Structures are given as structure tokens and as C-alpha cells.
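re: that chain from earlier
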Amino acid sequence: MRKFIGVARSILFVIVGLLLMFLLGLKVYGSWMAQPLKKYWSDSGDCYISKYEPDYKMIGLAGRVLELLSSRYFYRVYTKDDELLRTSEWFFWMREGNEQVAPEFSGATALYPGTEGWEYWTVTACR
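^ sequence. v structure.
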């Protein structure tokens, strides 16, 4: 009986691990396929923040499950030469975005809306 319980635990552990790897793979795929909805430039013109909405619906049922566990939008800060400086797409614990509120810059601070107010990064390259 103990041997059976040990085997069952091992199988369960492998299944959960594979499921998590699958969901992470879908998250990466959604990140790659996401297109910017809009760009918001800093006052200096050195950087911009882009708002993205990943399209998990095209992945099917697994994508809909991932959509429930993810934020509706994510944000990326780039230099004017399209070098990625910051991204919020891997903040699994946060719910970002609001359709009525646009991200913005205040000096070297990139501000974007979260469900609990404004989230921000200090990006010195954007001064």
C-alpha cells in the first residue's frame, strides 16, 4: 500500500509539473504573439511605453484558462531604438490595466495602471 501511495504521488507530481510547464509555454507564446495596442512616448522622446493585450483565445480552451489566471494587459518600456528596458508581463501576482486609463511618463518614471492604483518603474534612460 505504501508503495502504491508513493507511485501515485510521483505520478501526480509529474502531471502537475507538466501542466505548469504547459501553461508557462502558453504564456510565453502569448507574449511573443502580442501586438502593441498603442505607444505612449516620454517627454524627452527617448523612450516609450507600450500597452499589450495577449490573445489567448486563439489557443483554445487552455488559452481561456490561462486568460483567467493572467492580467488582461501588460506593459513594456522601450528605448526609441526598440531596446526593451522593462516589462510587466511576468508579474503573475498583479492585475494590470484599465481601458479608460493610459500609461504615462513623469520624468524618468513610467507609470501604468494597476487594479490597486498606479504601478511604476524608474527608468533613468528615459530622462
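DSSP finds two helices and seven strands in the chain.
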